[in-house]
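Anyone? Bumping this.
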Amino acid sequence: QMQLVQSGPEVRKPGTSVKVSCKASGAIFASTSVQWVRQARGQPLEWIGWIIVGGAKTSYAQQFQGRVTITRDMSTSTVYMEVTGLRSDDTAVYYCAAHSSGYYRASDYWGQGTLVTVSS
Amino acid sequence: DIQMTQSPSSLSASVGDSVTITCRASQTITGLLHWYQQSPGRAPKLIIYGASNLQSGVSSRFSGDGSGTEFTLKITSLQPEDFAAYYCQQTYTIPYTFGQGTRLEIK
């Protein structure tokens, strides 16, 4: 079993950055991977990237390459996602999600979501 | 990137009806296709993984089928709590793309 608890809502101005955290509890953290997904109001889910927690290997969707960085801190069982160069269209709810099956990689654990608002 | 196309984009049905949602991949994803349910204001919830495996704790009214490029999610005997948005996601290759969603509404 695992629980994911995300940091609170953020408001940023265009051009700045934001770092969202996702703290995990449970024994499987070190053996899982965590993906980040976002959803603008009324829009579908959009995959941002992921980190394989044990080896800290990351991958990102092309449109986020160079602007998003995912990291993890094993000592606190926390994964972070930083977005730089924020634009108004980055306004969305950001979710972290983890899986218990290394084969299927379907996310059976989700954070509660963090609303990031980008506005001047 | 693999494109995931869901149909229909929205669907109206009544309590007790059965519905089927389709998800097509732009190239083969073997059986690495998963379905999520999302109620308004809530995080997505995994309901089917690996195309046809029912997630623990999910009602047996949900079933999934398919392989390769075409997949279906069937919901029988619709209950009020089933009216939500449904998304498919492939985890065959990065980026792990989602479909655009199907909104299931009460008729």
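Late reply, but here is one note on the structure posted above: The radius of gyration of chain A is 14 Å.
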